[in-house]
Amino acid sequence: MRKAPLAAALGVILLLAPSTAAHAEVTVAFVQPEHYTDAGNHGYDTERNLRALERHLTEQASRCLSEGETLELRVLDVDLAGRNEWWHRGAHDLRVMRDITWPRIELEYAWRDGAGEALGEGRERVSDQTYLWRSAYVRGDSDALPYEKAMLRDWVERRFCRAGYAQGAE
């Protein structure tokens, strides 16, 4: 009757062992970021913002892709919500949000299945002209770039999360 504990132990080991299954892979590349419309103040601020966008895109897309799928994102331009207005500057830079300074990100994507077959590809300008309507939802968010992240989360959801359902329905 020692077989039951042995089988249970083997099952636990198999559950804890690293999986060799192919996971989804998301890559984000920033193309000529020095020419972006507005990725933040030059230097540290721009680097921090781009890294935040990269982490966010990777995290959001990874939750939507199936095992073995790949998504290559090439960010071509970034225009953050709001503008730094020199006459409002004091000791700190102040980014002023107005209804005409909505966030925009231009990108290209290539989405492939495990065999390398294209599931989708294109070039899009993602924007949110009504970003200020989200103010109540992002006001308490201490995270950097709340408007851009909300905009990208919605785009990833529309483009990659529901795409499988739409394809299956056809």
For the record, the count of structural domains works out to 1
The level of helicity is 25-40%
* Secondary-structure element series: HEHEEEEEHHH
Tally of individual helices? 5
Distance between the termini: 53 Å
- Report strand %: 15-25%
Unreliable spans: 17-21, 165-170
- Shape label: globular
Strand order of the largest sheet: 1-2-5-6
Structural account:
There is one protein chain. The protein is of the alpha+beta class and 170 residues long. Helix content is 35%, strand content 23%. The chain has 5 helices and 6 strands; from the N terminus they run αβαβββββααα. Strands 1-2-5-6 form a 4-stranded mixed beta sheet, covered by helices on one side. It has a two-stranded antiparallel sheet with strand order 3-4. Helix 2 links the parallel strand 1 (25-30) and strand 2 (70-79). Helix 2 runs parallel beside helix 4 (146-161). Mean pLDDT is 80; it is low at 17-21 and 165-170.
What keywords describe this structure?
disordered C terminus; single chain; two-stranded antiparallel ribbon; alpha+beta; 170 residues; 4-stranded mixed sheet; 23% strand; globular; 35% helix
Set down the secondary structure blueprint.
Elements: H1 3-16, E1 25-30, H2 44-62, E2 70-79, E3 83-84, E4 95-96, E5 104-112, E6 118-127, H3 135-138, H4 146-161, H5 163-169
Parallel strand pairs: 1-2
Antiparallel strand pairs: 2-5, 3-4, 5-6
Helix pairs in contact: 2-4
